[in-house]
Amino acid sequence: MHWRDIGIDRMLIRKFIGQSSLLFSALAVTLFAFGWVRVWVVKLLDMGQFQTILEQFRDYEKFAPIEFDALFTYSGRVGMTFDEPIVILCTVVWCIARGSDVVSGELGRGTLEMLLSQPVSRARFLLSHAVVSIGGLIALCLALWAGMGVGVHATTLTEVVPPPSVRVPFFGFELPLTDDAPVEQSFPMSDRVDLRTYSSSVFHLFAFGFFLLGLSACFSSLDRYRWRTIGAVMTVYVIQLIMYGLGKAAESLSFLQSMSFFNCYKPQRMTSLVRDGDLWSPWNLSLPIEDGWLPPLGYPLLLIALGLFCYGVALVVFTRRDLPAPL
Amino acid sequence: MPDPESGDLVRCEHLTKRYGDFTALSDCTLNVRRGEVFGLLGPNGAGKTTLIRTLLGYLYPTSGRCSIDGLDPADDPVEVRRQVSYLPGDARLPRHMRGKGLLDFFAEMHPLGDRERSFAVADQLELDLTRRVAFMSTGMRQKLALAVVLGPRTPLLILDEPTANLDPTVRATVLDLVSSEQATGRTVMFSSHVLSEIEQTCDRVAFLRKGHLAHELALEDLFQRHRVTARRTDATSSEIPIPVELAEWIGGISQTDNRIQISTAGDLAPVLPWLATLPIEQVRIEPLGLHAIYQSVHMGEELPQLQPQGSSETDSPKSEGVL
Q1: How far is CA B67 from the centre of its chain?
Q2: In this structure, is residue B103 part of a structural domain?
Q3: What is the mean pLDDT of chain B?
Q4: In chain A, where are the structural domains located?
Q5: Model-level pTM?
Q6: Are B66 and B50 found together in one domain?
């Protein structure tokens, strides 16, 4: 490798950072702020009051991304952040915007012509773009986690502790042992929620985004119009989402669920594994979650493998195709 | 293709590029010698840009091969682009950058990049480098692209319509820059629709038509071809005979009323004494110009011989009509 090649990589990465900095800043601020606010909102709702109502919907629990029991714990409710539409939307926007840009975006703008007139191989160009896109995705996932962390440490919870009582057998009611008033206790949320619980959920979010990034880059390398690339990726996304939904809704169509990449995105399941086991439970690669399932770490690794495959296809297609003149 | 020995920096051998049924470039064979300014002429869709893009490795040829400094762009496009500075016909630059940052960026990108040189060209073109590319006019962006391309001291400079979108003053500056690049030993490939620019700057020119290399000629030969117009002073309308000894130099004589037009090919020296004996006045001698050749190629007509049959002692390259 020529020493100037490192300079080329550095300049390309700087260019891609500059190009995506506005989008990244907006999404990072959104995710950080949302993570914080979402945690704060957890304290506003006492889910215990909804327990009776939720019990009536036990039959529909399979449609929820989380077990209902998890809704009655702070860590479970904080963990729901990873399935919030805003989080998914921000991740999808970054991945599709950046992934679709690499070839068809640069071709459409006409800037690929000047960039590739420099002594840089197409592979280096694509990989430099991937470095920035993947780095941005990691930073966005960490921004969300950081926002949640700030929220967890800044939020104070207040719980009402009733006076000691005893449950009367057969009659099923509580008999107070004293006539003291209930006591309000305040404590930081970090006493109940360990932020490390969500490390595997953050990894799942990254894996989800990485696959989308690879898919978008793959479609982009085949195309010359960015709008068409985005349309194609969104089509795949929506079809996969419908397959996932149908697979969950009908037993006879359950095979569709396993054919959807959404089936590999299980951040709340990881939270449950931590709650039921320990912090390392989601990182297991030997014990399946349930019979017929993959080990917990298998799902994000599968997404990453699919993403790498897509990037591989993008690399081969881009290096072999003709590059048309800008229109 | 060991080019250093042949003296050709660029070589194309039966280069063909097809898109399905459409042939963008067909069986194109041409060479560009080191140190010359080589012009590419042809109407839109003639295959000029396809030829250039194939040379740079953007397009893979359907058949045939090409090389720059002995390097095949299909095999090693990166090494080829180390030898080339390329200005696209429609140069579009990253819009989020400012002019100064963009020149720095491209100077760093190319191993032979010269930041000072790029800034000097930008200064010569009176370019405001503090603006973002997004807020520059088309002409300003073209100037900026020229400053980028003229920075690296590569052996080959390929300019695809470099003066498009530029005002006449800047056009002249750009042509001066091209000439000065040649003076430093660089080889220049120059594509343009403006015939006067080709005449002014190029040593040789290739005409492309519908993907075919229609004609190739040395400008030196073209400049030896003249058109003499004059008014007859005698009252007769009889034809002026062409002396046998000048038959090779006189292409033809036509007369309309009392105006005559004599076409000459080759050196004017043998013709001038004969002209002096003719009963004519208001004599005007003008070079034939590229326009006439271009029109002939464009219309698919047979091209006239530019040099007299017998005057082969000159070292200048011969034109070769391939129509």
Answers
A1: 19
A2: no
A3: 85
A4: 3-157+188-320
A5: 0.83
A6: yes
State the Cα–Cα distance between residues B81 and B59, nearest whole angstrom: 14
| B281 shares a domain with B188 | no
Q: Do the chains contact at B96 and A19, CB–CB below 8 Å? A: yes
* Number of domain units in chain B: 2
Structure tokens at B81: 């682009």
Which CATH number fits the domain that encloses residue B197? 3.40.50.300
Q: Any CB–CB contact under 8 A between B259 and chain A? A: no
ipTM, 2 dp: 0.79
- The string of DSSP letters for A18-82 reads HHHHHHHHHHHHHHHHHHHHHHHHHHH--GGGGHHHHHTTGGGGGGSSS-GGGGGSHHHHHHGGG
Same domain (yes/no): B48, B166: yes
Helix count and strand count (H, E) for chain B: 11, 14
Token pair of B169, please?
């003053």
Same domain, B164 and B76: yes
Distance CA B283, CA B264 (A): 14
Burial B40-75 (b: 16+ CB within 10 A, else e): bbbeeebbbbbbbbbbbbbbebeebbbbbbbbbbee
Shortest alpha-carbon distance between residue A2 and chain B (Å) = 9
Cβ atoms of B275 and B214 closer than 8 Å: no
Dist. CA B208–CA B216, nearest whole Å:
9
The residues of A whose Cβ lies within 8 A of any Cβ of B are: 2, 4, 7-8, 10-12, 14-15, 18-19, 109-111, 113-114, 116-121, 320, 322-323, 325-326
Residue A13: its chain B contacts at CB < 8 A? none
- The set of residues, in sequence order, having a beta carbon less than 8 Å from that of B13 and lying 6+ positions away, is B1, B29, B64, B65, B66
For B63-110, the pLDDT digits (tens) are 999 999 999 999 999 999 999 999 998 889 999 899 999 999 999 888
State the residue range of the domain holding B275.
226-287
Instruction: Please check whether residues B189 and B267 belong to one and the same domain.
Output: no
Is residue B76 located within the same domain as residue B189?
Answer: yes
